[in-house]
Amino acid sequence: MNSLTIGDLSTVFRRMSLVNQTKTNLETYSMEIASGRKAELSKSLSGNFTPLASMERTLRTIESYQRGVDDAVFFASSMQNVLGSVAGHVDDAAAPLINSATYNNSATMEITSAETRATLDSVVYAFNTRAGGRALFSGAATQTTPLQSSETLMAEIQTAIAGATTADEIITAVDAWFAPGSGSYDTAMYKGSASPKSGFVLNDYETANFDTTASNQGVRDTLKGLVLGALVSEGALPGDLSEQAKLMQTAGERLYGASGKMQLLSSRVGAQEAKIEAASVRNTAEQYATERAKLEIVSADIYDSATKLTQAETQLEMMYTITARLSNLKLSDYI
Q: Flagellin C-terminal domain: which residues (predicted)?
């Protein structure tokens, strides 16, 4: 009867343990080569995950900031598009108003005034633009449309100029209606907030702020110039060509002045766009540096892993070869 001694069992178990360890090594090195990452990260870090956790936290923070950057880019570009559109409308309306005043022709002034009235519709619509569900020119009240309709505006102005018989009287009444604080514009036309919108956080140190609202003086002057130019088509100063011409002339001049203020608003938004771009570049650079540092910790040495994989494969083949030879040994071969 065959039997195994304690020494035999010890040898068998040791060989089995060595085979299992070699198989484990094969899996480890294969995984490192396939993924490019260390399979036993805890061992390589000696159990100290603090630096890696700090890097991952930094990357999550940067990712959050980049979402703020993306929101800021979208908001700024939307605002810039509106300001550009309004500036184009203003430039297109100013010259015809002044030219029509020099012609002193009733039909010409009527047509130009009607065109200015249509431009007023477009400009009010533009200032009421929303981007991503947020009103651009309402300040902190981003869910509120900033301006009432152009129809409401003209109705309010008609009430304000009731009884005026000269261009100067109309101009004075319209100026008073649009005046900040004391006029009716802030209660009858502007529905946004007096407080600016909260800024977009770009990183630990920078915020992009867009404080331009439809209560800004540039916006008031733009609407005021268009209102003055539209009044002739609304029946102001009927039959008095010289006073109508004076009103149209003033409207054109006011729009030229408003154009400069709109350009200033656009440049302020542009300054914030430049700030956003610079912050985005810095965030990207920090993200890249942090990811590189993280890779230094978690990445496996592919060449070293491949070398160890080859060694493990050779070792395992050798073990199987030796085992196969030992299992085929017969006592008769040595007698």
A: 261-330
